[in-house]
Automatic annotation (TrEMBL):
Complex and partners: Monomer. Interacts with TFEB. Interacts with the 'Thr-172' phosphorylated form of PRKAA2. Interacts with CREBBP.
GO BP, one annotated term: lipid metabolic process
PANTHER family with a match to the protein in the record: ACETYL-COENZYME A SYNTHETASE, ACETYL-COENZYME A SYNTHETASE, CYTOPLASMIC
Listed name of the protein: Acetyl-coenzyme A synthetase
Source organism per UniProt: Oreochromis niloticus (Nile tilapia)
Encoding gene, per UniProt annotation: ACSS2
């Protein structure tokens, strides 16, 4: 049953402020807003781009997520996660190490409840968290710490990914050393003992040796023991920064997407409530990692704002076996389940048999990349037994929450389409000249006006924010995705149209991988393209041109893979590396990636190659293409 009728469904596109104003009444405000509810300029030709929601109002998001639900809504005894939360204690720890309102705190942790505690502790005192996915390398962590000038790093000793031990503290230390080398010493590092809770200290008998520098390192548990469990929230302005989350940028340098307090809170709370048709007795499970935006918005903020009960999962969908997900669904009676197409395709490979009892399920969600109709059908027919609506939610780190999405049981579904815009979101499709296309059409997906949860800037570079999202088509926010609209007005996102790849639902910039490869002494030039992959969506196909006199062999291949893993992280590991004595270039010297994509996929229909400087290069690359992954 869908109970959407309780929402104030008013004429949204014409009057979103009235709608959001009603939503805001459900939250606690220390002081009221003074300016317009939603004030903005989306047109670079008219001045600086800005978006402000409820400016002048003061609130605290942690207070709204915890205190309000506990005291006003009487949800103190309701399970938030199947863990227990002690945020105030953690806040006191932050205060002890001198973190103040506005300071940035880097968090590099596995999927443990203490990660949520650390996030909420930061926002309770008005500090800005910058979470770095625990699969990223030391180099990536360092880059992000330095860019956002973090004064504290919170990490853990390590964790297991399947059978593999990840020694996180070692990586954190390496990152902190790199920060020092760059002239940016981070004051303190708090480490949670996750692998070993044994009393004998940091070197618990079960855990690997953990390096310890008493001048920098502090132990989470020891700190927690010595502090008070009460802490008044710091009241923040609606437009104060809430968090920074890095996403790949097409130039290679990651962008620190900045979200602010009130708009993000209202938007994630509302999208969660409506898109998952949240009911008080639901048990919700989002399988994403909190290191990505899906985990921020739909594990922490949206569910907690609604007082939801969630499952927090640390592990792999196929470990110890391929029934793992469905066993958990059954164990906790999960009603709403949210995952990525890459996980669905992975599980689909093993057939229907491992799909365990899951009669509790009511709504299924998907996010991260276009879902192919075959995977959609399997999800709907097998996992959802044809009774659970699928919400295919299109959104980005930058949008803060869902922007194109069906509403369960209310929007007729079409497999592979994220269907229609959420309340107050106004999409358009533009052609190359920036003209809005009407009716069935295909082109650039853009948005014509903001919604409360959209990003406000790129941390430290408002100019980059304007040039990345607003310069190409003045008056519009440009998503970087291609999109088709059908005769019923449904949107079908076709994928990235910039130099970005989507591997297992994670965006990677080709430039970032290329520069990691070129940093190897053997490599003169590199070009990276995506090649379709049955599970991951896209795989990384890398062309490398070696320096004169260097021989290509399997040892070098291993080194290059290692190089990319160390620079970026395991998610960026190349699937294919091809030795390319020459790359196809235009007469002006620009690499023709379009042709490299054809070579990677063995497609001989090349289209117009009149601008190609030397056509023999292409034939040579076709002859030597990689057929098997490295
Ligand atoms: P991220 O900012 O890392 O969350 O990645 C956002 C990108 O993921 C979008 O720009 C799309 O390319 C892709 N994406 C996310 N959700 C969907 C979806 N439901 N359908 C199609 N593409 C999606």
């Amino acid at each position: 049953m869908c109970k959407l009728m309780r929402l104030p469904l008013i004429a949204l596109t014409s009057c979103p402020a009235e709608f959001w104003g009603d939503v805001a009444k459900d939250f606690f405000w220390k002081t009221k807003h003074t300016g317009q509810f939603l004030d903005y300029n989306f047109d670079v030709t008219k001045g600086e781009i800005y978006i402000k929601c409820m400016e002048g109002a003061s609130t605290n998001i942690c207070y709204n997520l915890l205190d309000r639900n506990v005291h006003e809504k009487k949800l103190a005894d309701k399970v938030a996660f199947f863990w227990s939360v002690c945020v105030c204690v953690c806040v006191c720890v932050c205060v002890c190490v001198c973190v103040k309102k506005g300071d940035r705190v880097s968090i590099y942790m596995p999927m443990v409840v203490e990660l949520v505690v650390a996030m909420l502790a930061c926002v309770r005192i008005g500090a800005v968290h910058s979470i770095v996915f625990a699969g990223f390398s030391a180099e990536s962590l360092c880059e992000r710490i330095v860019d956002s000038q973090c004064c504290l790093l919170i990490t853990a000793d390590g964790f297991y990914r399947g059978d593999k031990l990840i020694n996180l503290k070692l990586l954190a230390d390496e990152a902190l050393q790199k920060c020092r080398d760059k002239g940016f010493p981070v004051g303190r590092c708090i480490m949670l003992k996750h692998l070993s809770k044994e009393p004998e200290g940091i070197l618990g008998s079960q855990s690997p040796p953990v390096p310890w520098n008493p001048e920098v390192d502090l132990c989470w548990d020891a700190l927690l023991r010595g502090v008070s469990d009460e802490c008044e929230p710091e009241w923040c302005d609606s437009e104060d920064p809430l968090f920074i989350l890095y996403t790949s940028g097409s130039t290679g340098k990651p962008k620190g997407v900045l979200h602010t307090v009130s708009g993000y809170m209202l938007y994630t709370a509302t999208t969660f409530k409506v898109v998952f048709d949240h009911q008080p007795d639901d048990v919700y499970w989002c399988t994403a990692d909190i290191g990505w935006i899906t985990g921020h918005s739909y594990i922490t903020y949206g569910p907690l704002a609604n007082g939801a009960t969630s499952v927090l999962f640390e592990g792999l969908p196929t470990h110890p076996d391929v029934s793992r997900m469905w066993e958990i669904v059954d164990k906790y009676n999960v009603t709403k389940f949210y995952t990525a197409p890459t996980a669905i395709r992975l599980l689909m490979k093993f057939g229907n048999e491992p799909v365990y009892k899951r009669s509790s399920l009511k709504v299924l969600g998907t996010v991260g990349e276009p879902i192919n109709p075959e995977a959609w059908q399997w999800y709907y027919n097998v996992v959802g037994e044809k009774r659970c609506p699928i919400v295919d939610t299109f959104w980005q780190t930058e949008t803060g929450g869902h922007v194109l999405t069906p509403l369960p049981a209310a929007t007729p579904m079409k497999p592979g389409s994220a269907t229609l815009p959420f309340f107050g979101v106004v999409p358009a499709i533009l052609n190359e000249s920036g003209e809005e296309l009407e009716g069935p059409s295909e082109g650039y997906l853009v948005f014509k006006q903001p919604w409360p949860g959209v990003m406000r800037t790129i941390y430290g570079s408002h100019e980059r924010f304007e040039s990345t999202y607003f310069k190409k088509f003045p008056g519009y926010y440009v998503t970087g995705d291609g999109c088709r609209r059908d005769k019923d007005g449904y949107f079908w996102v076709t994928g990235r149209i910039d130099d970005m790849l989507n591997v297992s639902g994670h965006l990677l910039s080709t430039a970032e991988v290329e520069s990691a490869l070129v940093e190897h002494e053997a490599v003169a030039e590199a070009a990276v393209v995506g090649r379709p992959h049955p599970v991951k969506g896209e795989s990384l196909y890398c062309f490398v041109t070696l320096n004169d006199g260097v021989m290509y062999n399997s040892e070098l291949e291993v080194e290059l893979k290692k190089q990319v893993r160390e620079k970026i992280g395991a998610i960026a590991t190349p699937d294919y590396i091809q030795n390319a004595p020459g790359l196809p270039k235009t007469r002006s010297g620009k690499i023709m990636r379009r042709l490299l994509r054809k070579i990677a996929c063995d497609e001989r229909e090349l289209g117009d190659i009149s601008t190609l400087a030397d056509s023999t290069v292409v034939e040579q690359l076709f002859q030597n293409r990689c057929c098997t992954a490295v």
